[in-house]
């Protein structure tokens, strides 16, 4: 639920960012959007307020699937590599958490590649003018038909260079904090 609400609140910022990034040229006189505020105003004027939420469906799907894949992978990796089960009181060494977090961080981008590609394309195209993709499923079918299956994972390598290292750090901290909590409160409660 929190992932969905944070997605909704940040989505319009992503649309503006993608529209600004896709512009070509250095002269501001030739660019459609002069800056973030001008971009947002132009989108609202030309496409309506919902233009700021273009690509919402694949974004929600990507974020939800990413979280499910990452948490499932982290739990599975901890069990398989370190024999760590939830609530067993065992605290992983920081390097173990880092390995688990890094590996778990690869699961999300691999599972969500198509949603990420479709999200970006829907955000970039807008809701008026030349509409190539009519929605999430139409975009998946069109990209697959015109560019092949691998096109649905374009941009995977940069995502894998960014997300797993961050997850390694996040899980190292989270596991240590949870370990401290379990040692401090759960073990003393059993006495």
Automatic annotation (TrEMBL):
<comment type="similarity">
    <text>Belongs to the mitochondrial carrier (TC 2.A.29) family.</text>
</comment>
<keyword id="KW-0472">Membrane</keyword>
<keyword id="KW-1133">Transmembrane helix</keyword>
<keyword id="KW-0812">Transmembrane</keyword>
<dbReference type="InterPro" id="IPR049563">
    <property type="entry name" value="TXTP-like"/>
</dbReference>
<keyword id="KW-0813">Transport</keyword>
<dbReference type="GO" id="GO:0031966">
    <property type="term" value="C:mitochondrial membrane"/>
</dbReference>
<dbReference type="GO" id="GO:0005469">
    <property type="term" value="F:succinate:fumarate antiporter activity"/>
</dbReference>
<dbReference type="InterPro" id="IPR018108">
    <property type="entry name" value="MCP_transmembrane"/>
</dbReference>
<protein>
    <recommendedName>
        <fullName>Mitochondrial succinate-fumarate transporter 1</fullName>
    </recommendedName>
</protein>
<dbReference type="InterPro" id="IPR023395">
    <property type="entry name" value="MCP_dom_sf"/>
</dbReference>
<feature type="repeat" description="Solcar">
    <location>
        <begin position="1"/>
        <end position="80"/>
    </location>
</feature>
<keyword id="KW-0496">Mitochondrion</keyword>
<feature type="repeat" description="Solcar">
    <location>
        <begin position="92"/>
        <end position="180"/>
    </location>
</feature>
<dbReference type="Pfam" id="PF00153">
    <property type="entry name" value="Mito_carr"/>
</dbReference>
<keyword id="KW-0677">Repeat</keyword>
